[in-house]
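Lab notebook: predicted structure, single chain.

Context: the supervisor wants predicted structures on file for every construct in the current expression panel, including those that have not yet been purified. This is the next one on the list. No modifications to the sequence; it matches the entry in the shared construct table.
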Amino acid sequence: MKNSIQHIRAFLAVANSGSFAKAAIELNLSPSALTVQIQQLEEWLGVTLLERSPRQVSLTAAGQNNRGAMEKLLLDLDNIVSGSRDLAALRRGVVTIAALPSLCSGALPPILKAFREQFPGVEIRLRDVVAQRIDALVREGEVDFGLGVRARMSHGLDFQVVMVDRLNLFVPLDHALAKRHSITLSELSGEPIILTGRDSSVRERVEQLFSDGGLTLTPGLEANYMSTVMALVRQGLGMTLLPESADEGRGDLVQVRVEHGGVNREIGLISRAGFGLSPAAQRFVEMMRASLSAQPLPTG
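Prediction complete. Output recorded below exactly as produced.
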């Protein structure tokens, strides 16, 4: 029945006030219009809900039985409406993101802080995982979107570039290469390099660069996380090739620019094809794009 919610509200107003006249005033209806709504509701349900007399209005057994369910129905509906409006207004909600560890420790924290300050009711859940895992989490719908490198996008995923990162050489302050402004990849051939784990997109890119150039990649130490690799370099245990976004800003390491056309890598928004983002997730993406676009992109 059309306008069933309106008719249910009319019945409950009469049931609660015990009077058609009072209910009509409350609902801003004429008594005749209110009577028609009650009659239509009774016809739709096939039962009589109200006993009418010149002095009072009382509930029938069917009215008593249905009253509680109708009140719950309206309460649930009001909660749905208010909850949806809160989500649309970004007063509440959850945004789940899967991102590369280098982004989680570098570019994302300032954006997360700004978003939280503007929308304190929205919870952000951040999962720092390797590139292949990002694709899987997005495809399975376990996260709203991912931030990673371009991979095979043929399995229901879209990729939109949000920033360009580049691999730089990281060395301790007292390293022999610390005063160099730039270095070629061939100069690093055969030199021990601290590498990230074999499932890392950075490790894959470094190996590909050396292989394409016919250069010798000599692994030194190896660690799964970039933060661990940086700590090893900081202790003077070697040098490493990592994204410039991995810089923790502590000032105790030097980045040396690597002159090579393949060191740039695109970082993008990975989402499920054909699926839109929630209002909160969309707003986060907008803030992220604005923040990253304000940063100078590397060249070379």
